[in-house]
Design brief:
It is built from seven helices and eight strands. The chain is of the alpha/beta class. It has a single domain, classed as Rossmann fold.
């Protein structure tokens, strides 16, 4: 059975949307698309909040400053300190504010240029710090039948997420036989790892190519395409990833059952076929 959103959403509902954008130039294509998304979503009646990481001067480095009451002054253990700070309520305020935005949101859009085959470091740093232990990982029971609340379960379950990714290369460069590798392979660690892991229903990404050649006519066309995706943000079928604790993976080795995608390997085996 195909995975579906846990939110009983229908067209016409007004929802909360968080846009997290990472680009150093406000007047870039990314900046313009983010402003378009805010305007378009608000016109649809949704509430929108934006975390513009460069404008916020976001601190990307995990450090002892992430906790207001360090537990071990001699050796910094990021996971331990993160757990203690989250459970004790003494995380740094910038982390708390971003976690509150995630809890508020019904959908999250991560928008960024693809730099060296991944998201910009400032956005990865946002993930590293905001996805605290006890908040996005280290959640739920670990046993012989349930290996934590993750991959389809967790704190962010029932929420939707979509990537908006810009690239300078041609679409063919990111095709199945393209020199850069298939875009689905490149984005899998983000889609399946960063988004599906803490529970999001992950939508197909909105990808834009040859962005260095964007004139006013092409920008209008891109906005029309993006607008259609935003119109359907809460009704589009998510990627049908297998959920970790639904019996499709053997626990505790966490490998897909032999009868599913038999004889195949690679990231696509984790997607349920129609």
């Amino acid at each position: 059975m195909q995975a579906t959103s846990q939110i009983p959403i229908k067209a016409g509902d007004f929802m909360n949307v968080l846009i997290v954008v990472a680009h150093p130039e406000p007047h870039s294509l990314n900046g313009a698309l983010a402003r378009f998304s805010v305007s378009h979503l608000e016109q649809l009646g949704h509430q929108v909040r934006v975390s513009d990481l460069y404008a916020m001067n976001w601190e990307a480095r995990v450090s002892p400053a992430d906790t207001q009451h360090r537990q071990n002054a001699e050796r910094f253990d990021p996971s331990f300190e993160s757990t203690q700070a989250f459970e004790g309520g003494f995380q740094s305020e910038d982390i708390v504010q971003e976690q509150e935005k995630l809890l508020w949101a019904d959908a999250v859009i991560l928008q960024f240029p693809l730099w060296w085959f991944s998201m910009p470091a400032i956005m990865k740093g946002w993930i590293d710090r905001v996805y605290a232990c006890g908040f996005a990982y280290g959640v739920g029971e670990h046993s012989d039948t349930h290996w934590g609340d993750r991959y389809g379960e967790g704190t962010l379950a029932g929420k939707r997420a979509m990537l908006v990714v810009t690239m300078g290369g041609w679409e063919s460069h990111y095709s199945p036989r393209g020199i850069n590798g298939h875009i689905d392979d490149i984005l899998f660690p983000i889609q399946h790892g960063i988004l599906f892991y803490p529970g999001f229903d992950v939508l197909p990404p909105f990808t834009l190519y040859r962005t260095g050649r964007t004139d006013s006519a092409r920008f209008a066309a891109l906005c029309a395409e993006l607008g259609e995706r935003l119109d359907n943000l809460f009704v589009t079928e998510p990627v049908a990833y297998y959920r970790q604790n639904d019996g499709d993976y053997r626990i505790p080795d966490l490998t897909l059952r032999d009868d599913l995608a038999a004889g195949e390997q690679g990231h696509h085996v984790h997607i349920r076929k129609p």
